Amino acid sequence: MDIRTIARVANVSIATVSRTINHVPTVNPKIAKRVWEVIEELNYFPNTQARALVSGRSKIFGLIISEITNPFFPELIQGFEDVAIESGYEILVSSTNYDPKRMAQCIRRMLERKVEGVAVMTFGIEEPLLDQLAQRNIPLVFIDVGPPSPGVSLLKVDYQHGIRQGVQHLAALGHRKISFITGPLRLHSAQSRLAAFTKSLKECGITPHPEWIVEGDHTLEGGVAAAEKLLAFDESPTAIMCSNDMTAIGVLHHMYRANLRVPDDMSVMGFDNIHIAEVTTPPLTTIQMSRFELARAAVTALRAQVESASSLAPQREYKIATELVVRESTGFPKGTLPQVPKRPRKSKA
């Protein structure tokens, strides 16, 4: 079966079937509806490779991520695929696991499949590898930072807003001994989150304690190790803010093993608001960075590059908002109670 069969049954031309399958907007909606009904009735599947050869377009967007094991990335992949499919694109996903050799393999796969654009949702990409994409005029999207080159868009995450809200939340509860477990400090995002944390502390009149700033690795195991280190100090913090939710979940686990209660003995806060943050014990207070917003902005940026018919340069930056989500893992510091205003005594008549 091919489009000739579809054209004969739908009583339209082969060109009309082709334009319908390729979502050309000039096709009459009633005719397009009839063509799609025939396609569904005959259970026809267009040959995408053949279409790509004829049209010169693969209609594929690449997505390069850091790892699969962190729930943040599968949620990002799901959002990216949903938005891409709605826009008429397929996706090709590759995971680097923070390995430069795997990054090179990821890029090779993208080039072999002739992707029309690539969203690079990872860090540490080396310049020679980037050049392989840039030399072919492939539109690129990066989180936070990227080269000032044509065809490159950036998703700029507003770390400061959400982290400021988180620090202010802890300070309002009475915390002054606040720790921060960073991500790998070779990453720009980890440096940005740490800078936002330090600035927010100072805005609240709290002096950062250098010993309570511990470098992590964005993993559950890293959260366990960092929490163990923090609790070994003679003076421990009363609240721990983490650079991502997986680190925070590791902290929760170590608190459980140490027979400490959250938030009674220690308040814990994450960053990302992955889905399982709602069902940890206790549910995790965290800072939301929407994976769907990241995905939608990435696809929008790639489409703007690929489909732009004007001479105007597509948008360079797309802002990604952050917002505090308060749950049950944060509370008043141990040994303190909220100050309840006393009611004035009634004067005797």
The residue fraction in helices comes out at 40-55%
Strand element count: 12
Q: Spatial order of the strands in the main sheet?
A: 2-1-3-4-5-11
CATH topology of the largest domain: Rossmann fold
Strand content: 15-25%
Rg measurement, Å: 26 Å
Give the low-pLDDT segments.
Answer: none
Helix-strand makeup class: alpha/beta
What is the CATH architecture annotation of the largest domain? 3-Layer(aba) Sandwich
Provide the succession of SSEs: HHHHEHEHEHEEHEHEHEHEEHEE
Shape: elongated
- Total domains, how many? 3
Q: Biggest sheet, open or closed, and with what strands and sense?
A: 6 strands, parallel
Number of helices, where a helix is a run of at least 4 consecutive DSSP H or I residues: 12
User: What does the average pLDDT come to?
Assistant: 87
CATH class of the largest domain: Alpha Beta
Distance, first to last CA: 99 Å
CATH homologous superfamily of the largest domain - what is it?
Response regulator
Task: Summarize this structure briefly.
Helix content is 42%, strand content 15%. It is α/β, with parallel strands linked by helices and 349 residues long. It has a 6-stranded parallel beta sheet, sandwiched between helices. Strands 7-6-8-9 form a 4-stranded parallel beta sheet, sandwiched between helices. The chain has a two-stranded antiparallel sheet with strand order 10-12.
